[in-house]
Amino acid sequence: MSNSNLFLKSGFVRAPLQNGVGRYVCQLQRIVLKFCKSHGGSRGLRDYIEQDLVDFASNNPSVVVYLKPRRHRSPVVVAEYLNGDRVWMSMHNKTHSEITKWIEVLRTQQGDVSATRLRKYQYTDYPSVQGPWTPFTYKDPKLNVAELPDPEFGANNRLPMSATEQLKIMFEKKQLEIKPKEE
Amino acid sequence: MSAVKRVQQWATFARTWHIFDCKWQDPYESAGVIKKYLMGLHKPIYHPMNDCGDVVVCINSREIALRGDDWRQRAYFHHTGYPGGASWTLAWELHSKDPTMIIKKAVYRALKGNLQRRHTMERLLIYPGETIPDDVKQNITNQIRQIRFVPTRLDHIPEEEVQKYPKVMEYPEDYVLK
């Protein structure tokens, strides 16, 4: 996370009211297309309005579509969502196909998605099957009654066996061999 | 959030207190280990943005062992901010003035130099000897394993064990030990 993201709203991946499970409610409520009738910057948006807008409106009866011609201003699309979000997007000098794709994005997204920083890229209702971790998971139960500090828990126990210890073990083995012979 | 979930959250993010015995340990080697516990890097829930660092209590910091000739060679730099305010203190000198300073500086150096460093250092407690205040001791639930082997001195081993120790040969009765 960089410094520029510090004031970005953070959140998790989620769908409003389990949208898409069983039924789908289009979250886009209203879309306003602002454009100029004469300037070249609005060319793509004008093409879109001419060719695709009627289809868009008839395919999405739940979306209110407004057109707002205004002289000598650059084209803009403003989308408003059920959760109250408002997305402003400049369409200046964008081609017809680009605008088709962006409007499809605005139609299918569920709010101002790009304004939140996702803390995680996945979400689950059941984060763990084996139970969440705590500091005492996988701990030696002997630690519960130990009086710390104790060299039994503090000393390094991963060192290789020293020559002295090996000799001591050899000596003890020898002693065990000698004893049965005496009996 | 239900009561069970709330308690689960407290359990997962509980701050654990660890103890580390610095006796015969290299402060610069052990700083790497202590750092992991201070930052919470040993936990599966670690994330740089969650507060999961633990408290580490270091004891016996007077008994640390520096490498090679470091007691005489290593110098600690300090500047008062005034002209001519620079001073260089040798490790043995610093250690005789404050026996907790070397391990503190070693851990401070091991941590990354960001805004969190000072707050992480607040969770490191260092004591020169064996004694710890009772309010600290009652929190300790875990011990960090040392890196180096700590040998036992011959006069600290009980007399019986020394007698039982296997010998290659006995000295003759009339042998005079130097």
TrEMBL record, chain A:
InterPro entries: Ribosomal_mL43, Ribosomal_mL43/mS25/NADH_DH, Thioredoxin-like_sf
MF terms (GO), sorted A to Z: structural constituent of ribosome
UniProt-listed Gene3D superfamilies: Glutaredoxin (3.40.30.10)
Principal localisation: mitochondrion
Keyword Mitochondrion (UniProt): yes
Keywords: Mitochondrion, Ribonucleoprotein, Ribosomal protein
A single GO BP: mitochondrial translation
Ribosomal protein/NADH dehydrogenase domain boundaries: 37-110
Classification via SMART domains: L51_S25_CI-B8
A Pfam family per the record: L51_S25_CI-B8
Subcellular location(s) per record: Mitochondrion
Family the UniProt entry places it in: Belongs to the mitochondrion-specific ribosomal protein mL43 family.
Protein name, per record: Large ribosomal subunit protein mL43
Organism of provenance: Papilio machaon
From TrEMBL, chain B:
Molecular-function GO term, any one: mRNA binding
Keyword field: Ribonucleoprotein, Ribosomal protein
One GO process term, biological-process aspect: translation
One Pfam family here: Ribosomal_L13
Keyword Ribosomal protein set for record: yes
Classification via PANTHER family: LARGE RIBOSOMAL SUBUNIT PROTEIN UL13M, RIBOSOMAL PROTEIN L13
Family stated for the protein in its record: Belongs to the universal ribosomal protein uL13 family.
Protein name: 39S ribosomal protein L13, mitochondrial
Classification of source organism: Eukaryota, Metazoa, Ecdysozoa, Arthropoda, Hexapoda
